[in-house]
UniProtKB/TrEMBL annotation:
Coiled coil: none
Listed name of the protein: Nucleotide-diphospho-sugar transferase
Organism of derivation: Helianthus annuus (Common sunflower)
Matching PANTHER family: EXPRESSED PROTEIN-RELATED, NUCLEOTIDE-DIPHOSPHO-SUGAR TRANSFERASE-RELATED
A Pfam family assignment: Nucleotid_trans
One GO molecular-function entry: transferase activity
Keyword Ribosomal protein part of the UniProt annotation: no
Length: 340
C-alpha cells in the first residue's frame, strides 16, 4: 500500500490534472501539439475572417471572402474624407443596403477598398469585408475635389486596382460610395454571355447599345475575361499621355476610337430609369435600382442631396403616404450650387 500524499503534493496533482483536462478539451484532435495561442484564439476571436490573410495573396483572400458562388463581388473604394463628419458619405452608402429592397444580403459580398488607415479601421469596425490598398506614398486621406490633380491620381489608382481584380479572375460590380442602392440591381443586369460590360450613363439616349451614351464609371458590372483585362491594360496605359483627363474621359475617348469593337467587347449602357443619377432622374420610382450623386462637385453637396434621396425613398415606402399623387424627386439644389 502507498502512503497518503502530503497536502502540498495533493494540490500539485490536482492542478496538473486540471491543466491536462483543459489541454485535452481545447486542442483539436488532429493537432495535439497546438500551442496555447491556439487555445486563446478559440476563446477570443479578435478579427473577422475577411481581415485574416495569412500567407496567401492578400487581394485574393479578400476577394474570396466576399465572393458569390460565381466569383462575383461588389467593390467600393473609400478614403477618410468619406468616413468622417456628422453623417459621412460612407454611412449614407451603407444605409441604402439597410433600407433598400432585397439589398441587405448583398453586404455579404461587398468588399470595401480603403486607401488610408482611417477608412480601413472604420471598415473593420463595421465588420465588413475590407482590403487596404497601399498607395506608395500618395496621400488620399482628405477630400479630392472633382478634377483636381489628386482626384485624377486617385481615379487612376482605382483603375489599376480594378484591373488587378479582373486578373485574379473575379467579375465585379464597381460602385462609387455616392451611389445609393434602393433595390438589388442584379435582376436589371443581364447574364447574357455576349455582354462583357454594363455601365451607367449620365443621360440615356434610348438605345442600350449606342456608344453615343455618355458613360459614367461610377457604377458598372464587368466580367473577367481576356477582353476586359486587355481593355483595362490599354486604358491604364493612357494615364501618362492624358494629362489633366480623368480616367472616365479617357475611356470615352478610347470608346470613340473603337476600342470596344476592336477588342470584341459586348457593352451595354444602362437605362437611367433603372440606374439613375442627379444628371438625369429616374422616371419611375417603382423600378429604379440606384441613384448616383453625379453632376456634383463636393462631398458636402452630395451628402446633402443624397439625404434628400433617403427621405424621398422613405416617403415612397411609407404605407400611410398618399400614393394618389405622382411621385416627384426632391431637387438636387446643393449639387447644382456646388459648381458656383
Amino acid at each position: 500500500m502507498y502512503g497518503s500524499l502530503k497536502p502540498g503534493a495533493t494540490l500539485a496533482l490536482c492542478t496538473l490534472l486540471l491543466i491536462s483536462f483543459l489541454l485535452i478539451y481545447f486542442l483539436p484532435e488532429q493537432n495535439p501539439s497546438a500551442s496555447i495561442t491556439n487555445i486563446t484564439d478559440k476563446l477570443y476571436c479578435s478579427k473577422p475572417p475577411s481581415a485574416i490573410h495569412e500567407s496567401r495573396d492578400e487581394l485574393e483572400a479578400a476577394l474570396e471572402g466576399a465572393s458569390m458562388a460565381n466569383k462575383t463581388v461588389i467593390i467600393a473604394v473609400v478614403n477618410r474624407a468619406y468616413t468622417v463628419g456628422d453623417k459621412p458619405m460612407f454611412d449614407i452608402f451603407l444605409d441604402g443596403f439597410w433600407l433598400g429592397e432585397d439589398t441587405r444580403r448583398l453586404t455579404n459580398h461587398l468588399l470595401i477598398v480603403a486607401v488610408d488607415q482611417t477608412a480601413f479601421e472604420r471598415c473593420m469596425f463595421l465588420r465588413l469585408h475590407c482590403y487596404w490598398l497601399k498607395t506608395n506614398g500618395d496621400d488620399f486621406v482628405d477630400e479630392k475635389v472633382y478634377m483636381s490633380e489628386d482626384f485624377i491620381k486617385m481615379m487612376w489608382l482605382r483603375t489599376r486596382f480594378l484591373g488587378d481584380v479582373l486578373r485574379h479572375g473575379y467579375n465585379f460590380i464597381f460602385t462609387d460610395t455616392d451611389v445609393w442602392w434602393l433595390r438589388n440591381p442584379f435582376p436589371r443586369l443581364t447574364l447574357n454571355e455576349t455582354v462583357d460590360l454594363q455601365i451607367s450613363v449620365d443621360q440615356f439616349d434610348g438605345d442600350q447599345w449606342s456608344q453615343t451614351n455618355p458613360l459614367n464609371t461610377g457604377f458598372y458590372m464587368i466580367k473577367s475575361n481576356n477582353k476586359t483585362i486587355a481593355l483595362f491594360d490599354e486604358w491604364y496605359m493612357q494615364r501618362n499621355t492624358s494629362v489633366g483627363m480623368k480616367e472616365q474621359d479617357v475611356l470615352v475617348e478610347l470608346m470613340h476610337k473603337g476600342v470596344f469593337k476592336r477588342l470584341g467587347l459586348g457593352v451595354r449602357f444602362l437605362d437611367t430609369i433603372y440606374f439613375s443619377g442627379f444628371c438625369e432622374d429616374s422616371r419611375d420610382i417603382n423600378v429604379v435600382s440606384t441613384v448616383h450623386a453625379n453632376c456634383c462637385r463636393t462631398i458636402r453637396a452630395k451628402v446633402t442631396d443624397l439625404i434628400n434621396v433617403v427621405h424621398d425613398w422613405k416617403r415612397f415606402r411609407d404605407p400611410s403616404d398618399n400614393k394618389t399623387m405622382d411621385f416627384i424627386w426632391s431637387n438636387h439644389l446643393a449639387c447644382q450650387n456646388s459648381w458656383s
